[in-house]
Amino acid sequence: MSFNTTNTSIFDFSEHLFWDVDINNMCLEKNKKFIIHRVLDYGLINDWQIISACYGINHIAKAAITIKDLDKKSMTFISLLSKIPKEKFLCYTTQQSTPKHWNF
Predict the structure, then answer these.
(1) pLDDT tens string for the chain (104 positions)?
(2) Which residue from 63, 56, 55, 49 is spatially nearest to 14, judged by alpha carbons?
(3) Across 1-104, where does the E strand assignment appear?
(4) What does the domain layout of the chain look like in residue ranges?
(5) What is the distance between the alpha carbons of residues 102 and 104, in angstroms, rounded to a whole number?
(6) What Å distances lie between residue 61 and 24, 57, 72, 99, CA to CA?
(7) How far is residue 57's CA from residue 32's CA, in Å, rounded to a whole number?
(8) Greatest CA separation for the chain
(9) pLDDT confidence of residue 47
(10) End-to-end CA distance of the chain
(11) Cα dist from 45 to 5, 52, 87, whole Å
């Protein structure tokens, strides 16, 4: 599947998103789910604008549905934008069986 990544580079994202990986080996298409996950959980508004332009809300939502450890706020945000019920997200269904130790 082709995305609108022609004018976008991995180096356009905030540096803090990829602290633990070699950014030179990242590809916007091959690492789509990883990039979306990082932007949803840790990204700034500029990072959100980049993935929105690159992938579109439908592809972002499809990737987010399959992420087990997506932040609750990120899940709610994507659920609202995509009109997909929270119950469809894997992080919602797995969260109930594994509660966090420090739930603030």
Answers:
(1) 555 666 789 999 999 999 999 999 999 999 999 999 999 999 999 999 999 999 999 999 999 999 999 999 999 999 999 999 999 998 887 755 556 666 55
(2) 49
(3) none
(4) 26-95
(5) 6
(6) 26, 6, 14, 24
(7) 13
(8) 43
(9) 96
(10) 39
(11) 18, 10, 26
